[in-house]
Amino acid sequence: MKDQIVTGGFEGQSQVQAPLTRQLAGQIAVSEVQNAAETWTPQRVLAWAFETFGSRVAISSAFGAEGMVMIDMASRVHKNFRLFTIDTEFLFPETYSLMERIEEKYGITIEKVLSALSPEAQERMHGEALWKRDPDRCCNLRKVEPLRLKLSTLDAWITSIRRDQTSVRAGAHRVEWDAKFGLVKVNPIVDWNSKQVWRYIHDHDVPYNQLHDMDYPSIGCTHCTSAVRPGEDPRSGRWPGLAKKECGLHMIEPAPDAQIVRRAEGD
Known about the structure:
Blueprint: E1 5-6, E2 20-21, H1 22-37, H2 42-53, E3 57-60, H3 65-77, E4 83-86, H4 93-106, E5 111-115, H5 119-126, H6 130-133, H7 135-151, E6 156-158, E7 175-178, E8 183-186, H8 194-203, E9 262-265
Parallel strand pairs: 3-4, 3-6, 4-5, 6-8
Antiparallel strand pairs: 1-2, 5-9, 7-8
Helix pairs in contact: 3-8
């Protein structure tokens, strides 16, 4: 298959005798460490990912509390880490402000990945307020397909998902094969809870989104995110009034839409 045959292992590894597809090499890497990685600290998981995949691994973040923990941890493990975000162009002003603070504090440039369709083009093609009429379609256009194309340039991605966030994430491993996108998926704090996340933030003076102080425990796009009331599920503010609790980045989705391509800044 084009662009999948390599004559060596992943960056930082010694060359192998026979060519391997990147997918096969990734599956082998997962099989070798998956069980052991469940006993590793998040920092050791990150170190393994950076050592194994080099510049072909990147952190994906929407800059929630968990994402900020992951960014801070990475800065202490490997200074020149890659960080990207799916910028739907519908994010809160507080989120864009936090992105500027991250770049200044950690001395990195966030790779911003955008949908091929500007908000205006999406409205012309699919009608006004698609997120109200067909939120799954909107997420696919603005999040899933841009991510799919971004991940096609990598051998592994690092996320900050936790098992206790949704039922879809409950079976996630620290290191696993992502069959949906065809690469290694690394989830260093998958077994953490919210208290551990916030303890780390406060102990290490990690910047975070100001909306968290305004009853927004989970933050996405402006159109589909609201504050939650005391005692409500932390994810109840995402797509309020709908059964939808996932944008689709961490669950099985249909085959790519042939019309969707990526616009990107800095990647």
